[in-house]
Amino acid sequence: MLTRLTHDIATMTRRRLLAATAGLVLGLAAVSPFSPAQAADDTIKVGVLHSLSGTMAISETTLKDTILFLIDEQNKKGGVLGKKLEAVVVDPASNWPLFAEKARELITKDKVAVVFGCWTSVSRKSVLPVFKELNNILFYPVQYEGEESERNVFYTGAAPNQQAIPAVDYLMKEEKVKRWVLAGTDYVYPRTTNKILEAYLKSKGVAQDDIMINYTPFGHSDWQTIVADIKKFGSAGKKTAVVSTINGDANVPFYKELGNQGIKATDIPVVAFSVGEEELAGIDTKPLLGHLAAWNYFQSIKTPENEKFIKEWQAYTKNPKRVTNDPMEAHVIGFNMWVKAVEKVKSTDPDKVIDALPGTEAPNLTGGISKMLPNHHITKPVFIGEIKGNGQFDVVWKTPGLVAGDAWSKELDGSKDLIGDWVEKKCGNYNVKTNKCGGQGS
Amino acid sequence: MFGFCFGRAHALFLSILLLSCFALPALAGPFEDSVAKFANDEFSDTEAAVGEVASSGNPQAFPIISSLKDGRLSADPDSKKVFITQADGKIVDAASGAAVDKLPDNAAAVRLNNRLRRSVEAALGGLTLLSPDPARRLAAAQSVFKSHEENLLPTVDSALAKESVKSIKQAFTEARAAIILFKSDASESDKLDAISVVKARGDQEALALLTSLGGDAPPLVAKAATSAVAAIQSNLAMWSMVQNAWYGLSLGSVLLLAAIGLAITFGVMGVINMAHGEMVMLGAYTTFVVQEVIRTRYPALFDYSLLIAVPLAFLVAGAIGVLIERSIIRFLYGRPLETLLATWGLSLVLQQAVRTAFGPTNREVGNPSWMSGAFELGQITITYNRLWILCFTLAVFAILLAMLRYTALGLEMRAVTQNRRMAASMGIATSRVDALTFGLGSGIAGIAGVALSQIDNVSPNLGQSYIIDSFMVVVFGGVGNLWGTLVGAFTLGIANKFLEPVAGAVLGKIAILVLIILFIQKRPRGLFALKGRAVEA
Amino acid sequence: MTPHILTRSLDRAATSFILIVAGVGVLIPLSNLLMPQGSIFQVPTYLVALWGKYLCYAILALSIDLIWGYCGILSLGHGAFFALGGYAMGMYLMRQIGSRGVYGNPVLPDFMVFLNWDKLPWYWYGFDKFAFAALMVLLVPGLLAFCFGWLAFRSRVTGVYLSIITQAMTYALLLGFFRNDFGFGGNNGLTDFKDILGFNVQADGTRCALFFLSCLALMIAFLICRAVVTSKLGKVLIAVRDAESRTRFLGYRVESYKLFVFTLSACMAGVAGALYVPQVGIINPSEFAPGNSIEAVIWVAVGGRGTLVGAALGAVVVNYAKTFFTSGPLAPYWLFMLGALFILVTLLLPKGIVGTFNAWWEPWRTGRSTGLAADEESAAREDGIGAANAAE
Amino acid sequence: MNVMDTRATSAMLYLDGVHVSFDGFHAINNLSLTLEPGEMRAIIGPNGAGKTTMMDIITGKTKPDEGTVLFDGTVDLTRLDETRIAELGIGRKFQKPTVFESQTVQDNLLLALNVDHSVRGTLFWRGSKAESERIDKVLETIRLTDARNRLAGSLSHGQKQWLEIGMLLAQDPKVLLVDEPVAGMTDVETHLTAELLKQINKNHTIMVVEHDMTFVRELGVKVTCLHEGSVLAEGSIDQVSANERVVEVYLGR
């Protein structure tokens, strides 16, 4: 033990230095993020919380660009309340805990007035407690599974009743579909959507035998077996359709396999809820002619607003081929609603803006006026589009008017009595049966 | 703005159309008026126009409907004029067939939806049953088999009598049987004959036809149909085993292709190359660039794009591989776990570089015509792209094996990996061989990227989805043994595909992973492990 | 435990490390709670949460260093143990929500109501008790590691083969936990926690307490690791790392040693995960992603494999870099920097930050003292990272 | 136990009819050999004769395809693993010197001591006087007392060989299997090693595999020559080296 002691004494100074360095590093690290964000009085900060790397970058990068574009346009018009808008971009890197960390950073350190962000449900769930705790505003632009209405979140994408149910109605009425394949990636959005659709289909008299539900993992790339199963399921002598909630990257190999196995839209049409112009940009769409997608916006819709938007967007991105899609339109609507609400209350204070937002109207790009509802969802038209050979969609059907987004599905037992109402009831899960806030209670 | 009124029964419409077609061709209104309906941009009007034009007996009917099907029919909503853009680019007036200089500015293609597409196909089927072109006749017969439209029976009969090509004659016989099966006034014996014809066909469409027969058929027919269905189903069940085996081979070939480069860099050189997937990705992006250039400059060469991409991808990925070896890996020999760290960092850099250069979204890589579509082998569908990938993989494997065995470089590689010092003292430039070996492994990964671009999406994340599977394959097969990699890949592929229908895609994959873990317990050095005392030396 | 273990393991460096962590653990919460808001001496809550997260990563890094740095077991699936510990804590936190969930069901968590489950699956029983959950935090990762290690070490799966099957293990768990049928909330995981032991998880006080607990856990984990590596067992571990079959021929039951240290390490990772979850507010299957485990190994390599201080430091440095680079104008390029950091560290600092630092001081130290000490840290320093590879 | 003759029961090591093949290559072919208690035996043979494989079999690293391997007359070694065999008292020195290079000479010996080898025992180990005395004694025997605090990796090749022999001594086995102890040593070192082994032989049974004929001659013990996995000749060094077949095998055909 003597040797150890001498050694210890000999190395004491070295160790101390080591310790000092460690302390220095820790200290520096703790201090540097303090450097107070130069919150100049003449700008309003807008947080952009979209993944720029990792698996979700494929979808979310465009949305970051959209917000930058909208801020740019707004500043050209003189900004908001006489102040310029300033974007604060962070990269949560498709990492869900990092979403929460970055949200906290945006609100606490950068003191943003509002955040536009998230794509996946899990990223929204991850930041939700942060927005509630720090009382800020999140605009969420993607179609999702519903079953949520939070005071600090505004859902500008479609709820299931604004996408899935109209699409199924269309197939039932116009294509006389009797047999259904509900194919999805195994996560919450497809699970819930399929649950809702299953209940809905059964209520329309579809037998259990005529519904096939299939889940695949994220990024599934070998679709041979499943496409063959669909083909087999479709050969039972009844008109069959596939309702696809397959997510993200898995769509390209899925559609390639469909095309190659010769499943034509005239035999078994596929209606997808997660395939838009951006996703189609990676596929040769000629074999997919006639397959369907349900959205609240298509680039091909001919309205003056849309044409202007596409032109300016392509000019802004300096890419004449750059496509637009549904979540982008959701951001456009959300952004304009936020601007209007801020101008109405002449403040960016989240509490005031949150109260002002319900009832705010903003034109959507398809010729209608969308309105923010008390449940923090918006009214949107629903379109069914058929895939064309050039990667665009041809609208074959639309709802007669705008559809109000339901926060809580009428088709699910757990939520059929719930409503979200932040105007009168000040409650996201108000039970209309028991007249109490707080879900089904017991 | 949109048509909401195509609720009329499809069959009713067709029967009216076809009745008029054969009985009273003169009754159709002025042909021009019918054609003009295409210009209304309403699906219901288009549907009516299809019916009227098809039944008109006018020589323009076929060109109009076939061009509508291909999206070459356009209409001017103001003048109500309708035009056909012929395959050779010439434009004619649809109603008259007269040549026109150019399309009016506001002419737009007549839109279709799936319902209309089916009407168009049915109409074309009726119009082309007697076509001189055998391919069209075959298509027409198949379309009649599906629609089994009662009123087409006389035409089918006369076509059948005239037909000389055996396969088409068979198709007409089946189409006729399908019609008779659903013809309410056909005799019971005719129907029984029809059932045996359909049963002999034995595929899923035959199954669909028989199951849709419904319960209102006479008992004897219903019984025959049920037994035919059972026979077809048991036949198909047998074929589904074959099908699973084929899918397994196909999946195995993809795994092998992805893993084969790793079998060199990891298996032979011992470099844990986490950037292997990114080499695959670079190959896929090379294919994309090649296709872009071809699309914009030499569209005629599109079918050869992959042939051009293969050597280029090999060179690009190989060159980057050599660069990586020279600048990073060579400092890390003998420290395999550190190469893991550095190559992981490298994979992040490469991913982000591609993301910056090509954007984060998927890029379109098209299938050349010889890789599109499928053919039937017995009762299974074999897609050309999967078949070609299987052949391609085996070819790459064979070439690689031959290279290692018969070329000087192959000899040097084996020498260096077995005994570096000895090889060096025999005058082999070991560092050059290292660089070339790593380049070879990377180049093969690049080639894999060309093939994978045909079935998967080309995005910066492409490599990440193959890296884990590739390591599993190499380790399962036994590190350092190319044959092990081959057997490992096909074993995992086939096992996966036989598990998938039973357990589902997710549980199937979990089961495979657990099996690999347990298998490694049984054989800690993989399927084809080297034995003897050399192993731990 | 026995006092001689403590005295042996606490040399100067270890003592300094413990003191620094203890100082941070006390000062940061105090500054957050006592200083007025906005004062430059007040550490904002956001940083407390952030640093709490780093500390959990540091514990994970320690657990990896214990098996990789000292025993040569490269686990590419350690994130699985971290995540399992996190899930055990998450399940407790979910049960604590009670009827405050959006559906107001007193027993079932929201996602179960949502998917029409009518009763709690059996494996959720007991998680309403903190003590049970805390036990599970140790037991579940420990048991998995024990079973996995028992199979793998007994059949002498080593080197790369072991690394790949640990990766297969975490990948299989990733796929499993993604499945909604598994009953752990699928892709969304467990989130929207309300309180822990009756304290609101979002309150500053709770955050500070969790931060302090993380520091405490880091200290305890560090002490345990020190006790292990400075005992004779530590020498056996290094012997196993450097020449496994030689150790076996000396009559050591190598698989038992590996199993012990692997299980211990998994339990530590589980504790790290359990502390991580209430601080970040979510646990989801992506924690099982093989990439996360590889990254954790990289923290250790950056800090210095085989030096416990280095492992903890590496975790903090890499994650701080990640936080720093993912904001601001550099955000689109942060992967370049992170990737470059990994490459440069391997090429230029093969012994990691602390290892290189030690090696740099070596001449100075030998100049001062001729007595070469039989110190296990110097041993680890000498061999750097390469020696363990001799086994493969 | 099977029926066996008295010679087997009294032998320290008894190999009979042992076969091993790797992928069709017969490494050991009907090998039979006995080692009496207290004996020192030199094994010679050309490369690939199966010398190291034989040691692998005795120490449990390789399982024979068939044949009997008995230790101390009764213990069937083919059923045990390396650890158990080492615990029984068979120590082994490898062909390539294998010491724990990143640990000190002293720690190397400490690890080799045949004390409690359980996880618990090592975790709560605290040094004892008896242990350090034994280490001191071994250090003296292998002439490394001055290098006790040096890292084993920094030793010269010959010193490493000795350290490994020293580890065998610390392990205090009944049988020592020593694979090429003098490879790469100077003449002086070789001589010293021979002396060392003879000294050890006083209370241990030893089996030495060696190529160096001078060394074998210096040991002056019974020699067994292996060829193609079986015993070719046995006897004194002079007898064996006079054997025509041995000469033929060594000088090649």
From TrEMBL, chain A:
Q: Which UniProt keywords apply?
A: Signal
Source domain of life: Bacteria
- From the UniProt annotation, give the residues forming the signal peptide: 1-39
Keyword Signal assigned to the entry: answer is yes
Extract the SUPFAM superfamilies matched here. Answer: Periplasmic binding protein-like I
| Annotated transmembrane regions | none
Which InterPro entries did the record assign?
Answer: ABC_urea-bd_UrtA, Peripla_BP_I, TAT_signal
Q: What is this protein called?
A: Aliphatic amidase expression-regulating protein
Q: Which organism is it from?
A: Bradyrhizobium ivorense
Automatic annotation (TrEMBL), chain B:
Superkingdom of the source species: Bacteria
Pfam families, per database record:
BPD_transp_2
The residues forming the signal peptide are 1-28
- Output the InterPro entries linked to this UniProt entry: ABC_transp_permease, ABC_UrtB_bac, BCAA_transport_permease
- GO cellular component terms listed in the entry, alphabetical order: plasma membrane
GO MF terms here are: transmembrane transporter activity
What membrane topology is given?
Answer: Multi-pass membrane protein
Annotated membrane-spanning segments are: 245-272, 304-324, 387-408, 429-451, 471-495, 502-520
- Keywords for the protein's UniProt record, in alphabetical order: Amino-acid transport, Cell membrane, Membrane, Signal, Transmembrane, Transmembrane helix, Transport
Where in or outside the cell it occurs: the entry states: Cell membrane
Q: Does this entry carry the keyword Membrane?
A: yes
Gene Ontology BP terms: amino acid transport
Q: Does the keyword Transmembrane helix apply?
A: yes
Alphabetized NCBIfam families for the sequence: urea_trans_UrtB
Record's family?
Answer: Belongs to the binding-protein-dependent transport system permease family. LivHM subfamily.
Protein known as: High-affinity branched-chain amino acid transport system permease protein LivH
Its source organism is Bradyrhizobium ivorense
From TrEMBL, chain C:
Which InterPro entries does the UniProt entry name for this protein?
Answer: ABC_transp_permease, ABC_transptr_urea_perm_UrtC, LivM-like
The record's section on Pfam families has: BPD_transp_2 (PF02653)
- A single Gene Ontology molecular function, please? branched-chain amino acid transmembrane transporter activity
Which UniProt keyword terms apply here?
Cell membrane, Membrane, Transmembrane, Transmembrane helix
Q: Does the keyword Methyltransferase apply?
A: no
One cellular component (GO) term of this entry: plasma membrane
Q: Which CDD domains match?
A: TM_PBP1_LivM_like
Q: Where in the cell is it found?
A: Cell membrane
**Where, by residue number, does the polypeptide cross the bilayer?**
12-34, 40-60, 67-89, 130-153, 160-178, 209-229, 256-277, 297-321, 333-354
UniProt protein name: Urea ABC transporter permease subunit UrtC
Native species: Bradyrhizobium ivorense
UniProtKB/TrEMBL annotation, chain D:
Keyword list (alphabetical) reads:
ATP-binding, Hydrolase, Nucleotide-binding, Transport
Q: Name one GO cellular component term.
A: plasma membrane
- What SMART domains does the record point to? AAA
- An example Pfam family from this entry, by short name, is ABC_tran
Asked whether the UniProt record includes Signal among its keywords, one would answer: no
User: Which superkingdom?
Assistant: Bacteria
Q: Where is the ABC transporter domain?
A: 13-253
State the protein's purpose.
Answer: Involved in beta-(1-->2)glucan export. Transmembrane domains (TMD) form a pore in the inner membrane and the ATP-binding domain (NBD) is responsible for energy generation.
Entry protein name: Lipopolysaccharide export system ATP-binding protein LptB
Native organism = Bradyrhizobium ivorense
Q: Which gene encodes it?
A: lptB_3
